[in-house]
Amino acid sequence: MSNPSSDLVNGTGGPIAPRDPVAKRSELYILHEAMIEATPRPDGTFSQEIYLDGNRLVDKARIAGNVSDEAILELLKSSSGFRRLVHSIGISVQAHEEEIAQVHFTLEHRGKNKSGSRMSTSCPADGSEALLILDDFEASPDDDVLAKFAFEFDRAGALATTSVVFYLNDGYRVPELVNDSPVEFESQSYREMIKKSLMSPGNNKRLKAAIEKAKKGESVTIAYIGGSITQGAGAVPIHSHCYAYRSYDLFKQMFAPQEGSSIRLIKAGLGGTPSELGIVRYDRDVLKEGTAQPDIVVVEFAVNDANDETEGNCYESLVLKALNANSRPAVILLFSVFMNDWNLQDRLAPVGRHYDLPMVSVKDAVVEQFRWTADQGKVISKKQFFYDIYHPTNAGHRVMADCLAWLFTVTDQTISAEEDISTDKPPIIGNNYMGIQLLDRLNGEGIARIDAGGFRETDTDLHTANMDDHTYGTPQFPNNWMHTAKSGVDRFRMTLRSKRLILVFKDSGDPEFGTANLWVDGRLVRQGDPHIANWTHCNAVILYDEQDLMEHTVEIEMAAGQEDKHFTILGFGYVL
Please, are residues 37 and 158 in contact by the beta-carbon 8 Å criterion? Predict the structure, then answer.
């Protein structure tokens, strides 16, 4: 990457040496030709925010920069280490539309006690590089870690491709960037890779019926429920390049290409959440409170369910809840994968085998060939497949969609099973949460006796997700109960009859949020810590799990010393 100052000339017309020969410095790529999209923000701006805290910056250095030197990666974990390592930052942005002239770039630090310092510059949107020299910006002694990059546009929906490179100080070296060969999506080797994803076609009767409905021009609804990968994380634009939309669109092209065909998409992915929360959301987000009847339901929790307290009971309960719906949908189990080749399909696939369900494993398709060289037949590299260590790039989302499309193709080409799937058998893990229902501020008074106490406010700063094919984020659990610094010390108290109860509460990176004590029938059962993940999202925890239907009283109060803090009860899932 060239230094713009090298184009300067002296008085005789000849070139002069740049003040600092950046081109000779070692280059650590953090983003390399990454897609970004302007998203509306609460403050009225339109930006792509790329978070760097936790291990995110280190992960990006490993993926985009091919860095394995632990000493260098350790420096990236703190603002002070970053200053020791990095001399300057090069930012190039290539807008996808000519009318976008520039983009405003900001690197934001997070402070130990308050907001950290910021480094900003305007970048031409023609692909040329803008340079931020760190010594031109005063560091705050409170700076703790790098928080995020922000690319601000002048309108929503603008798309661009960007690269961000750290030019390192003298004495530090990283490997030179090596680009992978483009993925040949039309090649035979790609098709063979995709075929490996089909773990089992399962009993095809229901999926075959949905395909035949589409061919006849009848309406078909395809629903997806899962975590952030189903939400579309890593895809740009998220609403049209995520695997859910791509596979829905492929289904439509394959079986209902005629204009005006009524193939409906329901996308209900929510980042950072397991099936323990997915089953609480199912009636609301998939069945749309009884107004939707899916013909196909794709369930994707293979990388989120490590935090499922029930270790598969909620997953099997969710699968059965879908299978037993009046519309008798085909249920497809989809197993995504993390960059470390990990997922939970060994735990979850037995559920699919137990009910003879179609199962698609992205892990089975891509992991083996990740280890190959190009000569051995590698189709796609990890750098090409993964946006970060968790989420796919656009190419990765395409692979996932093509894996599902291969199941559609195989099902279409085979004869329909005569007998339907049977759920009239003992569960293999458990079905205790199959009948769960959502209780929140909207319907709570009709279900339970509730005294909100000091939790009378409503939180509007919520986890948002791009649902269905929406370009905007939908706030999750808006009908909540919130405690604030001015709420006092009175407990939230709720009495209801149920066998099982899941509490959903807000996680937050805001230090104004504090810990709450959670009581059941006068006994302290656990604490609700809103800083487990330390970013705004939804936490689900079990308060009780009983075999008999009984009346229970739940009380929630701020922990000692936390009385002036915030805590948000987003809702509950209860089983009668």
Answer: yes
- H-helix segments, 97-149: none
Terminal alpha carbon distance of the chain: 63
Question: What does the DSSP 8-state code read for residue 181?
Answer: P
With H, G, I as helix, E, B as strand and everything else as coil, classify residue 392.
strand
Instruction: Determine the distance from the C-alpha atom of residue 391 to the mean position of all C-alpha atoms in its chain, rounded to a whole number.
Output: 7
**CA distances for 301 relative to 280, 335, 423, 430, angstroms:** 14, 7, 21, 16
Query: CA of 79: how far to CAs of 29, 63, 146, in Å?
Result: 17, 20, 6
8's CB contacts (< 8 A; 6+ apart) are 15, 16, 18
Residue 576: partners with Cβ closer than 8 Å, 6 or more residues away:
435, 437, 497, 498, 499, 549
d(CA 137, CA 114): 18
- The DSSP 8-state label assigned to residue 22 in this structure reads G
Give the phi and the psi of residue 573 in degrees, each rounded to 5. Answer: -115, 125
**Total-model pTM:** 0.89
Residue pointed to by tokens 């930006």: 47
Give the number of other Cβ atoms within 10 Å of residue 357's Cβ: 24
Identify whether the C-beta of residue 567 lies closer than 8 Å to the C-beta of residue 482.
yes
**Contact assessment for residue 356 and residue 201, using Cβ atoms and an 8 Å cutoff:** no
- For residue 461, give the nearest of 441, 484, 438 by alpha carbon: 484
DSSP structure string for 484-495? -TTS-SPPEEEE
Q: How far apart are CA 122 and CA 559, in angstroms?
A: 46
Please, are residues 479 and 257 in contact by the beta-carbon 8 Å criterion? no
444, two tokens: 């709570």
- E strands present in 112-195: 115-124, 126-133, 143-153, 159-168
Query: Is the pLDDT score of 325 beyond 60?
Result: yes
144 contacts 109 by C-beta, under 8 angstroms: yes
* Beta strand ranges found along 188-228 (DSSP E): 198-200, 220-226
Q: Bigger pLDDT: 221 or 373?
A: 221
pLDDT tens-digit map of 254-263: 999 988 789 9
